[in-house]
Design a protein that fits this description.
Residues 15-128 form the Fe-S metabolism associated domain. Pfam families: SufE. The chain is mainly α. The chain contains eight helices and two strands, in the order ααββαααααα. It has helices at 4-11, 16-28, 72-85, 90-95, 98-102, 107-110, 113-116, 119-134; strands at residues 51-57, 63-69. The longest helix is centred in the C-terminal third of the chain and has 16 residues, at 119-134.
C-alpha cells in the first residue's frame, strides 16, 4: 500500500486538474465494498455525496475499513483518510492525528467546500469505531 507521504510527493508536483485525477485514481484503487454493506448504518452523515464506511476487525487486532462513495473525487478523499489508518490497531488509530496527516494536501484550498465538508465526519466515524473497539 502506498503511503500518504508518497502520494503527497506526487500530489504537490501536480496542477489542480491533475490533482483531481490523482484523487479519482486513489478512489478507483479502493478495495471494492460489497453493495449489501452500503446501508443507512454505514452511511457517513454530513457528506454532500454518499459515503459508506464499514470496519472489519481482523484476528491480529487491526481494523480494516471498506469504503465507497457515489462521487469519484469524494471516493479519493475517503482513500486518503483510510491511508492514515488502514490496518492499524484501534489504539494506533486513536493516537493518529488524521487531520495532521491530511494537512499537507490542503484539501480545503484545493477543493470546494461541498467536497470537503464531510471529511471531519469521516474522521469522527473512524475514531468512534476505534474507540468503541478499545472499550
Amino acid at each position: 500500500m502506498t503511503s500518504l507521504d508518497d502520494i503527497h510527493a506526487d500530489y504537490e508536483l501536480l496542477e489542480p486538474d491533475d490533482r483531481y485525477r490523482l484523487l479519482i485514481d486513489l478512489g478507483r484503487d479502493l478495495e471494492p465494498m460489497p453493495d449489501p454493506l452500503k446501508t443507512d448504518a454505514t452511511l457517513v452523515r454530513g457528506c454532500s455525496a454518499s459515503v459508506w464506511l464499514y470496519p472489519v476487525p481482523r484476528e491480529d487486532g487491526t481494523l480494516h475499513f471498506l469504503a465507497d462513495s457515489n462521487a469519484a473525487i469524494t471516493k479519493g478523499i475517503v482513500a486518503l483518510v483510510l491511508l492514515a489508518v488502514q490496518d492499524r490497531t484501534p489504539k494506533q488509530i486513536i493516537d493518529t492525528d488524521i487531520d495532521a496527516a491530511l494537512a499537507p494536501f490542503d484539501l480545503k484550498a484545493q477543493l470546494s467546500s461541498n467536497r470537503t465538508q464531510g471529511i471531519p465526519n469521516m474522521i469522527a466515524l473512524v475514531r468512534e469505531t476505534a474507540e468503541r473497539l478499545t472499550a
